[in-house]
From TrEMBL:
Organism: Qipengyuania atrilutea
Keywords: FAD, Flavoprotein
Protein name: Xanthine dehydrogenase family protein subunit M
SUPFAM superfamilies, per the entry: CO dehydrogenase flavoprotein C-terminal domain-like, FAD-binding/transporter-associated domain-like
Flavoprotein is among the record's keywords: yes
Pfam families attached to this UniProt entry: CO_deh_flav_C, FAD_binding_5
One GO molecular-function entry: oxidoreductase activity
FAD-binding PCMH-type domain location: 1-224
UniProt cross-references to SMART domains, sorted A to Z: CO_deh_flav_C (SM01092)
Length: 330
């Protein structure tokens, strides 16, 4: 690991105003330290935000049906919150099914949504070709690499790396908003606008400026007791999703009044299946309708020989998640 400076500012304002080029925030450190050891991320300065203002950004607050969560809330704390589990189980499921207990205890939800891809060529600097790590160098995955885990939605001819996280699929489905403290003061951003497609610039993963600090996530309408996160992976623990679905339903008798769908393991960014949602709204909650919506969700998929199975797997995951959600109380 390369030498770096370490700062521990007392306040969020100090963290942002004293930010210098080459610095990087560090919350639980479970992504940062990995990537620094691998020499993929090389910050000259680490800004430790884990203890900012004695826990001011570690909170879970309900106000009616609105939920606001501090960005420094540990994954475990949010996953284990009784009200969250009862009122919006997909948020809790997505965290419980991620990583390991030790990582969930250390990691904070702000760092979680900004975790980097697990593409092996991104994480191994002995590969020269990686447009995400080294813009313009090519893509070892597309150039004959192993692509079983790569994305089938939102890809470009420059990068097909999968967005690896789970929690973000629930946030995007719930229309979450990201609260940010930047050099010009506080602002907010739709969670759906936080991550960007790889297109020509896979190295640019979010719309944040380097000094932007995420301080909270808010969800105006978080009351979805009939919701779940279904994650399919190679082994049942401590593995990233091959395909996952965050699904939420509101029923009016037998008719779907509202539906939310976030797809994981299959796309380059947290993926909202809006067209599939539109096809379901106002119709019956049947397996045939869910299968039709899944076809719509994956209509634009682009595959390699090795990851083509993700289209069928992704559809089946979505249908099963919706069927199980429909059987829930709510
Ligand atoms: C072996 C292993 C298995 C894993 N499995 C899964 C899994 O199955 N599912 C899953 O979802 N995740 C998984 N993870 C990823 C893990 O959940 C993330 O590493 C973790 O959530 C990141 O949070 P952190 O607080 O440690 O972030 P850090 O490592 O501290 O930071 C991550 C990034 O976010 C930035 N950052 C952090 N906080 C902020 C903030 N408030 N504002 C602005 N920038 C910020 C940092 O600069 C850095 O770039 C796994 C990780 C490991 C090591
Ligand atoms: S898929 Fe993306 S991250 Fe992986 S090697 Fe290609 S450019 Fe790099």
């Amino acid at each position: 690991m390369r030498p770096f400076h370490y700062d521990k500012p007392a306040t969020a304002t100090d963290a942002v105003t004293n930010f210098r080029p080459g610095a990087q925030y560090f919350a639980g450190g479970t992504t940062m330290v990995d990537l620094m050891k691998l020499d993929v991320m090389k910050p000259a300065r680490l800004i430790d935000i884990s203890g900012l203002e004695k826990g001011r950004y570690d909170f879970i607050k309900w106000s009616g049906k609105s939920l606001r969560i501090g960005a420094l809330t540990p994954m475990t704390k949010l996953a284990d919150d009784d009200k969250v589990r009862a009122r919006v189980p997909m948020l809790s499921d997505a965290l419980w099914l991620a990583a390991s207990p030790q990582i969930r205890n250390m990691a904070r939800i702000g760092g979680n949504v900004l975790q980097r891809t697990r593409c092996p060529y991104f994480r191994d600097t002995s590969y020269e070709q990686c447009n995400k790590r080294k813009p313009g160098s090519g893509c070892a995955a597309l150039d004959g690499g192993v692509t079983r885990h790569h994305a089938v939605l939102g890809t470009s001819d420059k990068c097909i790396a999968t967005y690896p996280g789970d929690f973000a699929q629930a946030l995007v489905a719930l229309d979450a908003v990201v609260e940010i403290l930047g050099e010009d003061g506080p602002r907010s951003l739709r969670f759906a606008d936080l991550h960007v497609l790889p297109e020509a610039r896979p190295d640019r993963e979010t719309t944040l400026a380097p000094s932007d600090l995420i301080i909270a996530f808010s969800i105006e309408d978080a009351d979805f007791p009939r919701s779940k996160y279904l994650k399919i992976r190679d082994r049942e623990s401590y593995a990233y999703a091959l395909a996952s679905t965050a699904s939420a339903l509101r029923m009016d008798g037998n008719t779907i009044a509202d539906v939310r769908l976030g797809l994981g393991g299959v796309a380059t960014t947290p993926w909202r299946a809006r067209e599939a949602e539109a096809a379901l709204r106002g119709g019956p909650a049947t397996e045939a309708q869910f299968a039709r919506a899944a076809d719509i969700a994956f209509a634009g998929a682009s595959t390699t020989d090795e990851n083509a199975f993700k289209v069928e797997l992704g559809k089946r995951t979505m249908v099963r998640s919706l069927l199980e959600t429909a059987r829930m109380e709510g």
